[in-house]
Amino acid sequence: ISPTGTGKTEAALLPLLSRQLKDPSPPTSLLYVTPLRALNRDLEHRLVSLVKEVHLTAAVRHGDTAPAERLRQSRRPPDLLLTTPETLQLLLVGKRLREGLRNVRAVVVDEVHELAPSDRGAQLMITLERLDAFVGRPVRRIGLSATVGNPDEVARYLSPAPRTVEVRVARQPRIISIAAQLPPPDRPALDPTLVAELRADPVLL
Asked: Strand 140-143 vs strand 80-83: parallel, antiparallel, or unpaired?
């Protein structure tokens, strides 16, 4: 648990990537599950480049992934796969597709607070249990969130007993700087028609 923009995604992934480099496992070894497809596209630029920097591979898989890219991923699975809860369910259904998940070591669930109280969250937990059964061992689960009302409850949602759970909360005060500025007194006045159209105070503009 860490405020937005403090680097919790990198804090979770860097140790996992380090382990993959020191003790290589066949792809796909890492899953990154996010509830928002738009967030996938945002993460693609940041995380795919991060993974490439350490000479590993990463790919994004969701409902809009082109057939050619899907075929490429099935033939050459990436080390890290970014996906959504619904797509992960589909990957476990296909006989050929799920073979790429047999070596998964860890699953990172982003925005876990959005999933915990929802039907999508319940479906994701069933999917993760099926993943454990498929690989034949418990897969490590890591949840990320900027805000959680009850951390212990969400942790147990993600990793129910008899799994061991550890909650890490990074408390960091935010430094806010507020300044009031006025336009120069010699600035020409705005067109009254524009001021009326914007319903604005000409002094503030």
From this structure: unpaired
